[in-house]
Write a structure and sequence with these properties.
Keywords: ATP-binding, Nucleotide-binding
Low-confidence stretches: 1-7
Helix content: 40-55%
Strand content: 15-25%
Largest sheet: 5 strands, parallel
Structural class: alpha/beta
InterPro entries: AMP-binding_CS, AMP-dep_synth/lig_dom, ANL_N_sf
CATH topology of the largest domain: Rossmann fold
GO molecular function, one term: ATP binding
Radius of gyration: 23 Å
Distance between the termini: 55 Å
Strand order of the largest sheet: 6-5-7-8-9
Number of strands: 13
Shape: globular
Number of domains: 2
Pfam family, one: AMP-binding
Number of helices: 13
CATH architecture of the largest domain: 3-Layer(aba) Sandwich
Protein name: AMP-dependent synthetase/ligase domain-containing protein
Length: 372
């Protein structure tokens, strides 16, 4: 007898009264979820993280500084939740007091993943502003479209992206202020801002202003707009996905259980924060009391970041995984002799043990893979 074609179990049910003339009924399932209707990105940082990091002393955000004399990056430097919250309070207060932003205001950020990016994100959440990230690779067509479409008045910008922004800001009459994430504003940047009649300041200056003029938090509701994530615009005008705080937290809640993340875990942040996937991953890391280490900003140096950070959480894409595989294989082949034999033997042993669910090997991890 042929097997039945209809499902033997019903995994979801229709909510009565939710069907309309143009939309089918909302369906609900019985899957367990830690999502609750009161969740927001603000609560995730200020309340939920405390469940896994009650003292606020776990590593939260880390980054590497490059020695200007040698050009070599150093070890990761870290801040804890206790370090981070006063910075968020000051930056958010500066946004309100100095930039005169009102609840629901649009805040743009145009930079690669970095610690300062997260300061802007969580400061915006504290005051119920809507964050609009721009891919750091966007060009002269997509940038003005997004700035004008949202009518944003302030853009937080990385130094590397500053000239690109100044090249199009004359097309964006709503932009009044550019806040550079780095401290080293040079004379050329100052003159460019003056030429385009745009106020230029640094994030550090904004934070100092906020320290002197503290504004109480104005937390968002779950239904408030958290972010507008735009497409890159490669197939026409960029499209903006409007996501509420409840949307973002619901997406993160999907990962709360299946990732099995623990407070001692470490995530390497390199996938663009302008894409909501990385934002959701970071939300999950924060919820679970774990740590986020930012890459140097150059994918070509990602292997160096991996070796230094030793992350336990590494979301990726197939193209990059292929690149990493090829680089490791080429390195082993180039070493030759006993080194190649050791690598091949250790790799085969790890694959064998992985079939039984063992991710570590006491001998080969120490002899070979600790050298990565």
């Amino acid at each position: 007898m042929a097997p039945p074609t209809a499902p033997m179990k019903q995994f979801s049910y229709e909510l009565e009264g939710t069907a309309t003339a143009t939309h089918g009924a909302v369906r609900m399932g019985h899957l367990k979820s830690r999502f609750t209707s009161d969740m927001t990105l603000y609560k995730n940082l200020h309340e939920f993280r405390r469940k896994s990091d009650p003292n606020g002393s776990n590593k939260l955000f880390g980054w590497r500084k490059t020695d200007p004399s040698t050009g070599k990056p150093g070890a990761y430097e870290w801040v804890t939740l206790n370090d981070f919250l006063p910075v968020v309070e000051a930056a958010a207060s500066g946004m309100s007091h100095n930039l005169k932003l009102q609840r629901g205001a649009i805040v743009g950020v145009f930079a690669k993943n970095c610690y300062q990016w997260s300061i802007v994100e969580h400061s915006a959440s504290r005051m119920a502003y809507t964050l609009v990230p721009l891919y750091d690779t966007l060009g002269a067509v997509a940038i003005p479209f997004i700035l004008n479409h949202t009518e944003m008045s302030v853009v937080f910008c990385g130094k590397e992206q500053f000239k690109t922004l100044m090249g199009v800001v004359h097309e964006c009459p709503s932009v009044k202020t550019v806040v550079q994430l780095e401290d080293d504003v040079d004379e050329e940047e100052t003159l460019l801002a003056q030429e385009h009649k745009v106020k230029l300041m640094t994030l550090s200056q904004l934070i100092e202003d906020g320290k002197q003029n503290v504004v109480p938090a104005d937390p968002p509701l779950p239904s408030d707009l958290a972010t507008i994530c735009y497409t890159s615009g490669t197939t026409g005008d960029p499209k903006g996905a409007m996501l509420t705080h409840a949307n973002m937290m619901a997406a993160a809640a999907c990962a709360f259980d299946f990732t099995l993340m623990l407070p001692m875990d470490v995530h390497l942040s390199y996938l663009p924060l302008a894409h909501c996937f990385e934002r959701v991953i970071q939300t999950t890391v924060i919820y679970n009391g774990a740590a986020i280490g930012f890459y140097l900003g150059d994918v070509r140096l990602l292997m160096d970041d991996l070796a230094e950070l030793q992350p336990t959480v590494f979301p990726s894409v197939p193209r990059l995984l292929n690149r990493i595989h090829d680089k490791i294989s080429q390195g082993a082949a180039a070493a030759g002799g006993i080194k190649k034999w050791l690598f091949d033997t250790a790799y085969a042993a790890k694959k064998f043990y992985l079939k039984d669910g063992y991710k570590t090997h006491a001998f080969w991890d120490f002899v070979v893979f600790s050298k990565a």
